[in-house]
Amino acid sequence: MSTMLVFRWWLIPVLLMVQCSSFASSAKEEAPISRIAFGSCANQSAPQPLWNAINNYDPQVFIWMGDNIYGDIRRPFKLFGKERTIGPWKNVPRFVPSSEHEMQSKYNLAKHNPDYSLLRRKAKAKSVIGTWDDHDYGLNDAGKEFEGKITNQRLLLDFLDEPQDSPRRKQAGVYTSYSFGPVGRQIKVILLDTRYHRDPLRSDGSILGTSQWTWLEKELNGPSSALTIIVSSIQVISNLSATTGPLFYLESWGRFPKERDRLFKLISDSKRDGVVFLSGDVHFGEITRYDCATGYPLYDITSSGLTQAVEKVIPAPFRFIVRFVAWLTPTTMRVMDKSCRYKSCTYGQPNFGVIEINWEAVPVSLKFEVRDANGLPAIGVNTSLSELQAKKVAPMKAGGEYQKHCSLEVTLPWIVRYRLAILFFCTLAVLLIVLIGLVYVGILFSRRCLHKCKLD
Description:
This protein is of the alpha/beta class.
């Protein structure tokens, strides 16, 4: 009898300790997420000072959005010579794949960057997550035809410390989802794979492939969350190629209009509120929105890149030209705000993105920002969860009349849509006329000099 009493007295504190431990673990798991950082386009061989700003921001979750390394080999521009990478007589591709050993070495270099290693050490379980884009997939602009995708999928998942028994290691593609935070304050992150199943560019075929579409439909029709972040390595809302062509083209969902329409319809049919897109790829930052798809604004926060940025390849005195071209390029979706650092509301220097959620505010407030190397905002949007809930939206105006954040770039009048190309070719024509004029004046001057010499 006394032995049983002693056992019971020992059992009570043990049970209390187990229960307290369980409560502490539950509280830890259910802590709401209020700071998320994300980035893309990080050349492992280049200086990476932005990790300092990201570490100072101290995100609870960091999301890789693709081009986490530059794994393929880029040949230099060559118009002449044995190997010509550009021009009408181009005879070799400009980008070629690396070997498995080379890819592994590049991932090792990226993973052991001291400042990135600090982020990983500070991170909790599952808080550094990501997908890929073309350069870590293995080849610039590649899709489902790329032969090295199975090997490179394993290398990416090793880089992300994906468990060996993860379903991502058994499926065709790296798409997956995560949920963070307690019920009522839950954030769902959906990582898309826009490479493994993508049909060729200009085909208007599939980006995600049948299996990924089936999976995505289940994810969007699953349990609700306060905020749903869909990560696409390429831009979803913006379709700048519709206005920059034929000068140059960017990859985006807009170049697969049927797929983009299907994505918007899927979100709308799911009745899911609070959907936001994150994207990278383009080497500049911007925030775009589309108001005529789901009954509330769909935002796409583009942050690109951590090392690769359009202004980095331009000498500092001429960077104003890049900003002028960005301002001149027609866009129907970009959020233009007085708080932007530059008039174009784009940011062409190294950057990372953040989402901040204030759960205590009424209504819950959201802040989307693209930040510079010092951690200061260059572009930003303030909104709330209540603004990202379905409501009655006025239909499109008849006759294709322009509506801000509703009219697609392809619907712009041709003189507006192609004004960048018109300006470019007009400038070339003027320069050509000036050059011809200078040559003509030079010939006249030479003839007069020769005539004068003969007279003398």
